[in-house]
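protien #1 (seq + structre)
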Amino acid sequence: MSRGLAWLLGIAVIVAAWWFAGHPGWESREQQVKREQESKIEAGVSEVYRWKDDKGVTQITQSPPQGRQYTVIKIREDQNIIESEAPVPEPPQ
């Protein structure tokens, strides 16, 4: 067996082993997003997504909407405040 063929066979065996082992070290975009969200939850930092539906009503959800513009709002454990889009008027005294 020639040396080049042996190298090619060795590389093919390594690639096949990597493929059948479930591609360790490689993540799809969905897997990366899921891992990042899980790590943020463990760290006590979470995010919500603010967006408007077809009727113009503001929605706040835990997952980003598909095909719409949205704003990411980070929520910290030591705060429980989400800024409103418009200032709330002071009640009359």
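ok now protien #2
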Amino acid sequence: MNLSKIWTMYYPVILAFLSFLYSVTLWFTGNKLEGIFVGIWVPSILGFSVAIRQIRRDTNQENQKE
């Protein structure tokens, strides 16, 4: 598996993890409210990725039926 395929498949998880690290960094540097705000991004990123993949899957299935 090459790097572009890995990135294409796992980019939401990578972005969510980076957001989590940024949130923890903000929290422990004294910016607690900002850390909480950025921490909320993690489930949002993962939720949007699930929605986008579902739309793509439905679109691909409709195109295969035609």
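The first helix runs from residue 3 to 28.
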